[in-house]
Structure formats: C-alpha cells, structure tokens
Amino acid sequence: MTLLAHDRYCDEIACQVGRLRDVLTSGADPAATVPTCPDWSLEDLVRHVGQALRWSGLIVRTRADEDVPVDRVPGAEGPGARGDVAALDAWLEESGEVVVAALREAGPDAHAWSWAGDHTAGFWARRMTHELVVHGADAALAAGRRFEAVAPEVAADAVDEWLQIVQFVQRVLPDGPAKELRAAGSSIHLHATDTPAELDAEWFIELPDGGVAWRRGHEKADVALRGPLTDVLLAFYRRLPLDTPGLEVLGDRKLLEFWLEKATFG
Length: 266
Known about the structure:
There is one protein chain. The chain has helices at 6-24, 42-61, 85-106, 121-142, 152-172, 229-236, 253-262, and strands at 33-34, 37-41, 187-192, 202-206, 213-216, 223-227, 248-251. By secondary structure, the protein is α+β, with helices and mostly antiparallel strands. The protein folds into two domains: 6-142, Four Helix Bundle (Hemerythrin (Met), subunit A); 154-262, Nonspecific Lipid-transfer Protein, Chain A. The strands form two sheets. Strands 5-4-3-6-7 form a five-stranded mixed beta sheet. The chain has a two-stranded antiparallel ribbon with strand order 1-2. Helix 4 (121-142) crosses helix 5 (152-172). It starts with 5 loop residues before the first helix and ends with a helix. InterPro entries: DinB/YfiT-like (IPR034660), Maleyloyr_isom (IPR017517), MDMPI_C-term_domain (IPR010872), MDMPI_metal-binding (IPR024344). Residues 14-140 form the Mycothiol-dependent maleylpyruvate isomerase metal-binding domain.
C-alpha cells in the first residue's frame, strides 16, 4: 500500500471543503436531518466538520504531544447564531484554510499527536481528507443531492484507511462492536468496476480469530460487493444502501451486512 503525497491530501482537503460549502450554500435547509447521521442536522454536520478541521489544525501547528481539549481550539465553536448560512459558510471556509496551512507548513513527518498512535502531521492530512469525503456524502444526502464521484486514488485510499481503522479499533477496544468481526474462514471481496487496472481497486478481507486481515487484489470470497469505486466506498461506510443502482452483492449478503453492522469507530 502506498499513501498519497502529502500535498495531494492537502489539495483534496481544500477541494472537499469547497464541495461541502457548495452543498451548504445551494439552498439546502440547514435544519434538514442528515439521513446517515439522524441525530444531526446539516448545520450540526458542518459545525462538526469545521470543528474537526480547526482541532486537527491546532494539533499540527503546535506539534502537540497530547490531545487538545476542543474548548482550547480558537474558533472551534463556530458562529453564535444558528441558521445563518453565510456566517457558517465563511467559518467553514476559514476552518479549511486553517488546517491546510498548518499541514503544508509542517510537512508529512512533523510530530503531531494522534489518537491512532501515528504521531505525524501526515496522519492528519490523510484522516481529514477522508473525514471530509464521507461527511461530504452525508451533507449531499441531507440536501437531496447526488454525491459526486471522488478521484479514484482518493477513494481507494479511503477504503484502505477504513480497513486500517477497523483493525485498530479491534486492537484497542476489545469490547467494542468490531470484536465480533471474527469468523474464521469467512471472506469479503470489494471490486471497483470503473477504475484502471493499475490502480488495483480490489480488496480481499478475511475475518480470522486473530482479527481482520486484508490485502489488495482479486480473489474469490464468500461475498463480493461490486460497483463504481465511490459507491463501493460509501456503501462500505454505510452511506449508501447495498441496493443502490449500480451496486451488486454476489454471494453471502448476510456476511456483508454483518460486517457493516459491526465495523465502526466504536
């Protein structure tokens, strides 16, 4: 597995912030419920994203050695008045600029605390990229819009990262839902149907007793999820239903549904 270049992540963060701002300012109701995060409105979602950008930006800029409480992050609270789309948009724009500037100045190898044990600015560049991709899809759903396809190299890296997060959660939260993703002999295959062969946008995932294992490649599995890469990514993140037009589930659908139920941040 090869990570994207640090500047590529920074560029994508800026791109995805722009796409989220476009959804916010397109006439969508900021009070609309986010179907995939039903406890949130669209405004709640935007505030969550902006706060995460400013929080991670401060961690990178200060080369933090430990977690930073959100109440110590300048501007993290967002606009005071709710429902002010113009103010929310301006705050989100600035939030993106804060983290991109911090990441570009730091470079990928600079020290920066993270919850995952990878204490580098590069971790945050990658994490914020995919945070924005997934929550951008949430926002589009709340606004009743189709989420635009993500660049294939970004979407493929997001699948890799999600699989790594599930492995991490299994290790550090032994009593969390992901602990149940152990079914020796069971396997899942993800297959993007719209990418060039050199991208190798296929994944083989096993669920042995020792914890989730995965690799890139085309291998026969108990169940396969096939379709356009962005749709495969979003279905794998539970942002699209498995019956979405263009997606195919071949084989043991219940195994895939079991994975989707238990593969969470915890």
